[in-house]
Every structure is written in C-alpha cells, then in structure tokens.
Amino acid sequence: MQAVVRWAGNASFVGESGSGHAVTMDGPPDHGGQNLGVRPMEMILLGLGGCASFDVMSILTKSRQAVTACHVELDAERADGVPSPFTKIHMHFVVTGTDIKEAQVKRAVELSATKYCSASIMLEAAGVELTHDYEIRAAE
C-alpha cells in the first residue's frame, strides 16, 4: 500500500492513495489553515470508522442479515498538550434493517474489534482504549 501527501500551501495538504483517490487535509485558521478539509487526526478517526464498518457490514452480509443502513458514531478523547494522541475512542454502531438478529450484530462488532479491523488493533496496540456498542433499528 502506498500513498503520497503533498503540501498545497499554508497548512493545507493533499493526500493521494495508491488507488488514485485524493483527499484534502487542512488545519484550523488559528494554525495557518483555511479549514478547507479534514484535520489529519480526523482522518485517523474516519479511517478507524471506515475499517470497522467495512468489517461489520461484510460479516452481516455473509450472515444474510437484511441490513438497509449502517453507520458508526465515533467519540474520541485526546491527551492534553503536545503531542495529543488519542487516549479513548468509543464506536457506536447503528444497524438498521428488517428482522436483524442481535446475536449477529454483536458477533460482527466483536469480530471487527478483536480480529479483523487493522485500524482498531493498531490503535489498541498503541495504548488507545477502544470501546464499542451497537443498537438495532427497524427499517421503516
């Protein structure tokens, strides 16, 4: 896996993934940025959410759950001072569908967190406290 991040002036950078997709990152105005894109630490949080959601949906699809929507809400805490790495991250999965089995959702979330999500495993190895829960909503 490869990527390139290029300076775009002030506190802005453009990252391009090896698969050819680009994303703009920028700092807040009080740090020379123009608020043109996500912050780098936000990218890490979004990456975690994407990685875990990919796993959860893959597992639920394979277990033939009739999911119509799924999202994860991430709530992170960072250390005071510089550097300010993440110290805690909570992931709240919301799975919507028809006749969704709670045992399948619980299993999918746990397997993602403990076995499949590389981002979760990497962050935990770095000392970040990761927690997760879920809720199931009936499709309308």
TrEMBL record:
InterPro entries cross-referenced by the UniProt entry: KH_dom-like_a/b, OsmC/Ohr_fam, OsmC/Ohrsf
The coiled-coil regions, if any, are none
**PANTHER family hit by this protein:** PROTEIN YHFA
Kindly give the Pfam families that the UniProt entry links to this protein: OsmC (PF02566)
UniProt lineage: Bacteria, Pseudomonadati, Pseudomonadota, Gammaproteobacteria, Cellvibrionales
Superkingdom of the source species: Bacteria
Full protein name: OsmC family protein
